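Quick question: what would this complex look like in 3D?
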Amino acid sequence: MKVPVLRKLVVVLMALTVVLAACGDDSGSTADGPTIRVRGQAFSEAVTIAEVYGQYLQAKGYDVELLTPAGFRTEAIDGLRNDELDLIVDYIGGSLTALAPDAATSSDPDEVVAVIGPAYEEIGATLLDYSPAVDGDAFVVRGDSPASTISDVAELGYVFGASAQCYERPQCYLGYTDPAIYGITFADTVTIEFGPLLGEALAANEVDAVVWNTTAPQIIEQGFKVLQDDQGLHPAQNIAPIISSSVLAEYGDQLSDDLNELSAAISTEDLLAWNTETDIAKRESDDVATEWLEAEGLN
Amino acid sequence: MLLGQAPVPRDIGVFEWLFDPNSWTGPDGILVSLANTVILCAVVVVVAIVTMVPLASWLAHTRRGEVSVSWTVTLSRAIPTFAVAGLLVPISLRSGWGFEPWPIFIALLLLALPPIFLNTYTAIQQVDPGVVDASRAMGYSETSVLVRVELALATSVMLAGVRVAAVTVVATEPIRAFLGGDGLGRYVRDGLGQNNDALVIAGAMLIAGLAGLTALSFRLVERFALPDGVRRLATTTTR
């Protein structure tokens, strides 16, 4: 009786080996190199973005490890620096504030990239092409406001609401009130935690203007409008992948070409659509990412 | 945030900020924030006393609902204050009542009710039945038994309940700053948002200081507000 059992075991093991080997080959790609560790920042848009980049690379045959989203920009950049992560995706204007807090911000993405590119090189990472997709500051008012640009608000005596961060940033509250830029005189100010509460306060007439992000799905849902930044105060916030230089060197140009192709395909409307799916329809980020990649023919 | 006021510099020292007179004055100053916090907390504690002391005294005097009361109070202590206030804020906004004061008031009140209720109830319940019967035998009316005997003997434990409620409320009130309000919590909020550690630490010290001061002043009240007989009783029994 012993022999057949052993023989069965051997057969099973052999079958398993074949399957495993097939798995290895199945990626059908020439990509050969180290595992790419990807981790999204811990808010819904960034989680979906990480899923999109991660699943895209997986589909291209790269060896990808998608880590549980954690932390924000600081943790992402530290992860790259300490070789805990190989690929992060960040908003370029945010990267600028983190890496070069004293540098002048700009609403021109190329000017921002010119500063943060070398800064990322210093921590052993390479900034790839930025995407046309932007999630930046949005000066939001109710739909019935007569204003169409931020300058129009100057004389309206609005009550202003924003998170505590905004009140100390030259590209936010300080810029809106600076006579040399917008010179707005607000009737009052309220500090509100960043998130859906901004929309609630605006809808309830507690405030007349809030600083939100351009891809907040509630802006459309609640019938608000984003005023045009006619003085170019808001920094450029295109998303861009940043990859560990050593990993990039092992894979070569193929990896950067693949990532650049993906970045170019993402638009601001896509970000907004993803956020609507995850935040309003309460769907899972990985499903939203898979569906988008399929629809775009990228996986 | 005061209109047009420059943000607090990031490299400021904790005490440098605390000892700067400019930090204390103005509509964003510590004095105004302190007053906001103290007024809200005082109203909450007073409302809690006014509602809970009569209710608990009556229930305890008549020995009603002993089990259900203790269960209700114990469970109500498990209410997450921040979640309650956070849930109430959108409701309040949608109803046109604004950010303040209802959501934070209700959340803090829920925090203040249990200790005051529980201490009053337990204190009266544990008054020596012999003393209560004796006063009845001497011809006291039921009201007199409750007010002149039971409540008098319960004062010390009741005041301890009020102190616990007040300190808890003062220490929790700063969450208001994260819910569209101001008060002493604003320095922690602004410091966190603006990556200014000194502001966070100074704000936390102010909150802790106020909570400590509250505890201390209630201790003094407890010492001097006790009826003479009860104090003599307390000192003789503890010795």
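Answer marked as accepted. The mean pLDDT of chain B is 89.
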